[in-house]
Design goal:
2 domains; two-stranded antiparallel sheet; 9% strand; disordered N terminus; binds flavin-adenine dinucleotide
């Protein structure tokens, strides 16, 4: 298994991305990525089948190949085969597959970290959520009232809760605010 002791030259030999081209094109235009992962153990067919079985069904996309890159993924024709069979016969059925959130599997998470190490952030101006805040054990979750300062209520990001992108932080802000506002209402009504 690849781990953090892999040296920079070894890493470079696994994945080569032109960082300027990546910044210019990522998510907008196709660009070339060179890699040496084809004979990596985590890319062997038995291991990919194991991964496909472990991932939730909606995290594995598999469709017939030979379609234009611009085709809407939801309209791509399916192979008509199971995931296992598609992987086993991937050459002859000319399929392509996308595995999403493979970092759920620790071995693939380690490989991702090796190939794409985090070197920094884009700074506060681009930040979408702040970690840290009022510790949850200092708050009554039934009312969002402080256990240290009665009559003080918290909601949202000021608390030590942060979620992945995708609406979880909004949901937390709205739900905790609803709980806090309901409790304040009850308190005011006596
Ligand atoms: C660019 C960006 C994109 C994001 N996208 C997403 C997303 O797609 N999905 C998702 O779930 N979350 C997203 N988030 C996170 C989400 O917006 C926040 O987690 C959420 O809005 C927090 O709600 P809140 O009410 O706790 O705080 P805020 O929305 O920050 O509200 C705090 C309010 O308090 C006011 N305030 C501050 N100090 C004072 C003061 N002294 N007196 C009076 N008022 C004060 C501020 O002006 C602000 O209006 C994003 C955040 C950013 C910055």
């Amino acid at each position: 298994m690849i781990n953090s002791t892999v040296t920079a030259p070894e890493r470079a030999s696994l994945l080569q991305i032109d960082s300027q081209r990546f910044q210019e094109r990522f998510d907008r235009q196709p660009f070339l990525v060179r890699h040496r992962l084809d004979d990596h153990p985590l890319f062997s067919l038995p291991r990919l089948i194991e991964l496909a079985r472990a991932l939730p069904e909606d995290q594995v996309e598999y469709n017939a190949g030979d379609v234009p890159v611009s085709l809407d993924p939801t309209r791509t024709p399916r192979t008509g085969l199971s995931i296992d069979e598609t992987i086993r016969r991937i050459e002859e059925c000319r399929s392509w597959m996308v595995f999403k959130n493979v970092e759920r599997d620790p071995a693939y998470a380690a490989l991702l970290d090796t190939c794409l190490p985090v070197r920094g952030s884009r700074g506060f101006a681009y930040a979408e959520v702040t970690a840290g805040g009022v510790p949850l054990d200092q708050v009554d979750s039934a009312t969002m009232e402080s256990r240290l300062c009665p009559g003080l209520y918290f909601a949202g990001e000021i608390l030590d809760v942060d979620g992945r992108l995708g609406g979880f932080n909004f949901q937390w802000a709205w739900s905790s605010a609803w709980v806090a506002a309901s409790a304040i209402g009850r308190r005011l009504r006596g």
